[in-house]
Amino acid sequence: MTTTTRKWVLARHVQGAPRPDDFRLETAELPAPTDGQFIARTILASVDPGMRSRLSGGDSYAGAMKIGEGIDGFAVAQVCESANPAYEVGDLLAMGGGWREHLVSDGRGLIQKIPQDWIGKVPLGAWIGVLGVPGLTAWFGMNRVAQAREGETLLVTSAAGPVGATAGQIGKKLGMRVVGVAGGPKKCAWLKDEAGFDEVIDYKAVPDLTAAIAAACPKGVDVLFDNVGNESIDRVLPMMRMRGRVVVSGQVADYNVEPQDRHGLKNTSVFITHRVRMEGLVVFDDIRQFAEAQGQMAAWIADGSLKIAIEEFDGLEKLPEAFCGLFRGENFGRRLVRLGADPQ
Predict the structure, then answer these.
(1) What is the C-alpha to C-alpha distance for residues 317 and 311, in angstroms, rounded to an integer?
(2) Cα–Cα distance between 102 and 104 in angstroms, integer?
(3) N or C: less crowded end of the chain, CB within 10 Å?
(4) In terms of residue numbers, what domain contains 194?
């Protein structure tokens, strides 16, 4: 059995856009599990844009990370040693664990056994993508927060990311007209041809993004599902229809900007004149309903009606660069790093 393991830690607090040298790879002893513990070998690890808000030393919806602390993230892992009867050697898990080769756990926290019924029917990476926090954010953002309805117009920003692409496809299943904003012809073509969006705007190619959105949504926007930040929301507020809803899902454009330097919301009169509602969400508020949502989305993946895009890097060493690339707009779909082969 392996006696050492490696993990990435925070080398310094991040200022501005993250860089690979903000992180440090460390080797440590891998202890044998004590009573109630198990050890799992990481197969896939995620890089998550929301993690950026914890790296500068200030608290967000989760506490700030300290220098030297292991980087958080989600992982698909397989139990390789166990002193916990609830977790047997060979079990496949989707869990919080971070950028590391092995996960040592006492069974508490966010841990899900991947259901045997779905192994082989959906990719393992989906359990930390569309069937994990990103997809569940889309599900509850659309169903609980937006209360989306048939016949409405949905505008999704950062639409080629796993949250945005899932939100748009849920909107189509609900009978909405779906417009996406993404960057680059490859992403835009996938959203329209594969994911079924009605219209997609390439923000990198249009001279006036505000005008392009207005043209794509001539009757206005009923639901804005925003993953970008304040400037994006402020741009769309004047286009919101009566009793429109703004779902604040992510703020990828604002994570690298100091709070005092972020774009403010100016077009707030629409909240009064058009009775618009704006609400954010943290998906763990809905944890009791995770299984139901996962079951429905897994069925859609299996029958081909929910399209997913997974982008993989190979090797533990690639994690910092894969993460930093998120903030340069390089990712297409869910970005994962493979540390081991899928079990046979």
Answers:
(1) 16
(2) 7
(3) C
(4) 133-284
172 domain residue, yes or no: yes
Q: What is the mean pLDDT of residues 47-74?
A: 86
For range 175-186, the mean pLDDT: 97
Written as six digits, the tokens of 255 are: 């994570």
Maximal C-alpha separation, the chain: 66
Distance of CA 185 to the CA centre of its chain: 22
Two structure tokens written together for 152 = 């409405």
Q: Are 39 and 76 contained in the same domain?
A: yes
- Whether 124 and 137 map to the same domain: the answer is no
Radius of gyration of the chain (CA): 20
280, 137: one domain: yes
Any long-range contacts for 197-200 (C-beta under 8 Å, 24+ apart)? 197/156, 197/159, 197/168, 197/172, 200/159
Confidence class for position 258, pLDDT limits 50, 70, 90: confident
Spatial separation of the C-alpha atoms in residues 311 and 334, rounded to whole Å: 6
Exposure letters 170-202 (e unless 16+ CB within 10 A, then b): bbbebebbbbbbbbbeebbebbbeebbbbbbbb
Residue 120, domain member (yes or no):
yes
Please tell me the distance from the alpha carbon of residue 169 to that of residue 59, in angstroms, as a whole number. 33
Cα separation, 186 vs 123, in Å, equals: 22
Asked if 114 contacts 40 with a C-beta cutoff of 8 angstroms, the reply is no
Establish if 292 belongs to a structural domain: no
Domain count, the chain: 2
250, 227 contact by CB (below 8 A): yes
The answer on 139 and 278 residing in a single domain is yes
Q: Name the token pair of 70.
A: 């292991």
Q: Give CA angle at 179 (173, 183), nearest 5°.
A: 120
Give yes or no for residue 11 having a pLDDT over 90. yes
Question: Can you say how many angstroms the Cα of residue 297 is from the centroid of all Cα atoms in its chain?
Answer: 15
Report residue 268 as tokens: 């707030």
